[in-house]
Specification:
Blueprint (H helix, E strand, L loop, with lengths): L1 E12 L7 E12 L3 E6 L5 H8 L7 E6 L2 E2 L3 H4 L6 E4 L12 H11 L4 H14 L4 H4 L9 H13 L5 E5 L7 H18 L2 E5 L3 H7 L2 E6 L2 E6 L1 H5 L2 H6 L6 H11 L11 H29 L1
Parallel strand pairs: 3-8, 3-9, 6-7, 7-8
Antiparallel strand pairs: 1-2, 1-4, 4-5, 9-10
Length: 299
């Protein structure tokens, strides 16, 4: 079942003025409930505009967009989409405004009209999900924390809403590699356990390769490619033409294959690439042993 469906979606900023800019043009796509879907594209491709439309922050200029059963063109209904679609902005720390971490994360649940006990439970759960200890950070000012921790707090504030769709615009930017991996693992667990639909906007092709089931490539406001990461990354020429690259693991496997090495070219993650290269080296050593034994017997 589709939870997001766009048909010929177009969005124009400052329409009818000298500053008119078409950020999206005739976008048609569907995102299924419970899916991990990625949006990629060069700067200015329209990714951020598209996810803001998903959240109901703006209405489309033309075309149809249904999100969680809501027609985003309907201004009365669109205002309630924040309850169903959680959006973590590209710089989520700018979403912080309360005097303590607890109050910031609790802001959304309180506005949902939940009981004090339910709010407390959601805050603790959300902070745990992003790898923070509630007892340690709840009473701290978010502005006294490092940029990476502030980012986690902002994400927790969205997670605490328990939305049907979670839209993440570059959520791991500024985090160290271990924190990036842990955060994405927790988000994927949340998706699997609660059926949350995740829409990820990322410049990291490695991140997209690891987590996304399907992805879309935007180019100057148009949908250039859509499919599984494997399908998209095998179109490296097309990707490079829109200013993107394939993950290093995919590039390595493709180059090894082009050089006559018998390796799989459907590998996306570093772990699988390591295993495949180890297999190749083991096979090479085995072939050398066979050749050596043959020469010994021949002599």
């Amino acid at each position: 079942m589709s939870i997001i469906k766009a048909e010929n979606l177009t969005h124009i900023y400052s329409q009818g003025t000298p500053f008119e800019v078409t950020s999206l043009k005739d976008i048609s796509l569907e995102i299924k409930q419970g899916e991990f879907y990625a949006l990629v594209g060069a700067t200015g491709s329209g990714k951020s505009t598209l996810v803001q439309l998903f959240n109901g922050i703006m209405a489309p200029t033309r075309g149809n967009l249904q999100v969680c059963g809501v027609d985003v063109s309907n201004s009365a209904l669109r205002r309630e989409l924040w309850r169903k679609v959680g959006l973590v902005f590209q710089q989520p720390e700018q979403q912080l405004f309360e005097e303590t971490v607890y109050k910031d994360v609790a802001f959304g649940p309180i506005n949902l009209g939940l009981s004090v006990a339910e709010v407390e439970e959601r805050v603790a759960d959300a902070l745990h999900l992003v790898g923070l200890e509630p007892d340690r950070v709840s009473d701290m000012s978010p502005f006294s924390l490092s940029g990476g921790i502030r980012r986690k707090v902002a994400i927790a504030g969205v997670l605490a809403l328990h939305t049907e769709v979670l839209v993440l615009d570059e959520p791991t930017a500024g985090l160290d590699p271990v924190s990036r991996r842990q955060l994405m693992e927790r988000i994927d667990c949340l998706r699997k356990e609660r059926g949350v639909t995740v829409v990820l906007v990322s410049h990291s092709m490695e991140e997209v390769a690891r987590w996304a089931g399907r992805m879309a490539v935007l180019d100057h406001g148009r949908l250039a490619l859509e499919g599984s990461p494997l399908e998209i990354f095998n179109k490296s020429v097309k990707l490079r033409s829109v200013g993107l690259d394939v993950p290093l693991t995919v590039e390595l496997m493709l180059q090894l294959s082009a050089n006559g090495k018998p390796v799989r070219t459907d590998i996306l993650t570093t772990e699988d690439a390591v295993d495949e290269i180890a297999r190749l080296l083991k096979q090479s050593d085995k072939n050398k042993d066979i050749l050596s034994q043959h020469e010994t017997n021949h002599d």
